[in-house]
């Protein structure tokens, strides 16, 4: 399978924003960013020294299909980061692209940052997301209700 992680650009942020406004995608992923302007500002912040977020774009067979990123990177106190992944090309869901991208990205994050674990949140009804996270080594830690929605928290420890 031809999956490559590349550096993000402003153009990627715009495409990602547009693609993820899809109603089905919005129901499956806990997005916190409310505008394209906010997304672009956060991207610019991620490029600065000492940034607490870091991301890549996912290409499959030469086409941009999603993003994977870490946020809340804490190398001092908690020694952890949070990870999110979204494949916005729905016809590619369940094809192993997210799994391959996650394995590569998690290794990169553990090599790049002085952290011991990576956490991830997903909605409890998002079985594909939970399956992907468990397949790459995340363990379910907690299920909770937030804003009336059942969600799960999972973690993977550095080996």
CATH architecture: 3-Layer(aba) Sandwich
Calculate the terminal CA-CA distance, rounded to whole Å.
25 Å
The average pLDDT is 95
Category by helix and strand content = alpha+beta
CATH topology title: Aminopeptidase
The overall strand count is 7
Q: For this structure, what is the CATH class?
A: Alpha Beta
Query: What is the CA-based Rg, rounded?
Result: 15 Å
Q: How would you describe the shape?
A: globular
Q: Which range best describes the helical content: under 10%, 10-25%, 25-40%, 40-55%, 55-70% or over 70%?
A: 25-40%
- SSE pattern: EHHHEEEHEHEE
Largest sheet: 7 strands, mixed
List the strand order in the largest sheet: 1-2-3-4-5-7-6
DSSP summary: helix tally: 5
CATH superfamily: Gcn5-related N-acetyltransferase (GNAT)
Number of domains: 1
Q: What percent strand?
A: 35-45%
Uncertain stretches of 5 or more adjacent residues: none
């Amino acid at each position: 399978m031809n999956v490559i992680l590349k550096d993000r650009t402003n153009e990627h942020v715009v495409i990602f924003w547009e693609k993820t406004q899809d109603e089905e995608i919005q129901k499956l992923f806990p997005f916190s960013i409310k505008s394209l302007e906010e997304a672009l500002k956060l991207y610019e912040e991620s490029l600065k020294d000492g940034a607490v977020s870091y991301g890549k774009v996912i290409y499959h067979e030469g086409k941009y299909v999603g993003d994977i990123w870490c946020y809340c990177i804490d190398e001092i106190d908690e020694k952890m980061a949070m990870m999110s992944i979204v494949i916005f090309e729905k016809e590619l869901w369940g094809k192993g692209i997210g799994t391959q991208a996650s394995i590569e990205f998690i290794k990169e994050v553990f090599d790049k940052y002085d952290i011991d674990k990576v956490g991830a949140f997903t909605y409890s009804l998002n079985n594909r997301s939970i399956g992907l996270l468990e397949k790459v080594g995340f363990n379910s830690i907690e299920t909770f209700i937030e804003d009336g929605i059942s969600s799960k928290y999972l973690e993977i420890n550095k080996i």
